[in-house]
Amino acid sequence: MTATTLKQTILQHMNQQSSSATKTLNLLSIGQRGVGKTVFLAGSYIELHSGFTAERPQKLWFDSHNSQEQEKIEKVLNYITQTGQYPPPTMKIASFNFSLKRHGWWKTKTLCDFSWWDLPGESCDFNNPKYQKLVLSSHGCCAFINAEALVNNAAYLPQLTQTIDQVAAIASLVNQHNIKYAIALVFTKCDLLAPEPLSLLQIEEKIQPLLSRLDAAKTNYQKFYSAIPLVTFAGVPQLKPTGAATPILWLVSELKRLHQTQPKQDLGSGLKQQLLSPVEQTFIFKQMLGSKSLPLILSGIGILGVVGIAVTSLWGGKPLAIAPKAASDTDSKIQAYEQLLQNDPGNFDALVELANLRIQQGQPNLAIPLMEKLVRQEPERLELQLNLAQLYKLTEQLPKAESTYDRVLLQEKDNVAALVNKALIRVEQGDRQTANRLFSQAEKAAPSNLKAKVRDIAKNSLSSRE
Q: Where are the transmembrane segments (predicted)?
């Protein structure tokens, strides 16, 4: 697909869908430090403010939501103008909130709102709880690869392993759970390569391991070659982007198309709808990391989204083993949180962090009283109760686990995760009649695309006890 054809397709999608209600799309950026994520955003912004062209008769542009948002992007552009250099690598996570607008012949229309997360390269790590939260909140992502280094530096490709694994892991999950998601592969610094087909062939050859994995997962992705040279015009340094904004336009357009007939669903919500309890999303990240120990997911910041423990799979699998981690600074962290709780026994964040640390050390029995306190503090939060129930199951306290699922069902009678897990306990206790009733209720409550999965769980668990 040529750049011209792609832009025409983008405009066509935008025109078809502009009447739908707007909702913010969260766009994740993945890439190593210095790959050019910030330059890419600045170049895209500049290009979409550059005026009409014959190729783009209905101008699209980003509009900042408020003066503070505008100041953030202007700060990047002013740095370039004042120093004659590209901006330095991002030092902390920064969010840029924009409205994508179209200027027609008679009026200006907002097509959608989107948030762009500009991340330091070292933050792009599935072990980082903040990054995990951004991944689960995303509707699509841009993965950045330094094209110049890929072609000319033999040591660069091995350094891409983490980026490749992350993108492939997200693609695999999206495919397995039928989630609507799109990925833009952006090859940066193409202006530093010779403008000849050989460069494209070299890029294609070297990135085949990633492309093969994306193709195998039937990923909705597109490749883009970004050239944003820094030039001096009338004595003023400035970026001169060519097609820089196309990846974002494609990504937003594609996401609007994918979510055209139903509410927009981020990655985390998609996983939850696939009958994954909060705890089981931890296993998802374990698969992403490819490690033997389970990472901590979404802990802290006042919210316990997921507890990083070994769990019995909702699909009826055997419990995963917990491998205690070697002592490190974990012990000092435990002491610090215990001291904090002595002075402030109800500190929610401290309880969350200490529970996760106990689980991380392979001590779920010590995490249970902490989780019980959290549930008592906020009994209306079902994810806390589901985590507590999984801890009870892990420590073979099935009556307590079942009573916890009962409390969840009193608050939400059609909670599919609680229904299925309670049914599995009933199967284990030999109560097939109650298990059948719970499985039937779970199947009725499940989304239409998951009803067959509930039936499979019921069939497999019941047949294993015959």
A: 294-315
Report the side by side order of strands in the sheet with 182-188: 59-64, 94-103, 108-118, 25-30, 140-146, 182-188, 221-225
* Alpha-carbon span 99 to 111, nearest angstrom: 7
The CATH architecture to which 275-412 belongs is Alpha Horseshoe (1.25)
Q: Which among 48, 36, 64 is positioned nearest to 10, based on CA atoms? A: 48
> Residues near 229 by Cβ (< 8 Å), separated by ≥ 6?
191, 239, 240
How far apart are alpha carbons 229 and 244 in whole angstroms?
11
pTM of the model: 0.57
Q: Give the pLDDT of residue 262.
A: 60
Domain ranges within the chain, ordered by starting residue: 3-267, 275-412
Answer positive or negative: Cα dihedral of 320, 321, 326, 328.
Answer: positive
CA–CA dist 314, 308 (Å, integer):
16
In terms of Cβ atoms closer than 10 Å to its own Cβ (0-12, 13-18, 19+), residue 82 is exposed
Answer whether 69's CB lies under 8 Å from 96's CB. yes
The model's pLDDT over 121-140, given as tens digits with 9 standing for 90+, comes to 777 777 777 888 888 889 99
The residue ranking higher by pLDDT, 1 or 220, is 220
Q: Which of 80-94, 275-289, 440-454 has the lowest mean pLDDT?
A: 275-289
Number of H helices, E strands in the chain: 20, 9
Q: Would 3-267 and 275-412 be classified into the same CATH topology?
A: no
State the pLDDT at residue 450.
Answer: 75
Tokens of 445: 């409550």
> How many residues in total does the chain contain?
466
What homologous superfamily does CATH list for 3-267?
P-loop containing nucleotide triphosphate hydrolases (3.40.50.300)
Distance, in Å, from the CA atom of 321 to the CA atom of 310, rounded to the nearest integer, reads 6
Pairing of strands 94-103, 59-64: antiparallel
End-to-end CA distance of the chain: 56
Within 8 A by CB and 6+ apart from 352, the residues are: 299, 300, 303, 304, 374
CA distances from 150 to 121, 157, 189 (A): 17, 6, 10
DSSP states along 373-439? HHHHH-TT-HHHHHHHHHHHHHTT-HHHHHHHHHHHHHH-TT-HHHHHHHHHHHHHTT-HHHHHHHH
Q: What is the identity of the amino acid at 171?
A: A
Three-state secondary structure call for residue 146: strand
Angle of CA points 220, 281, 408, to nearest 5°: 125
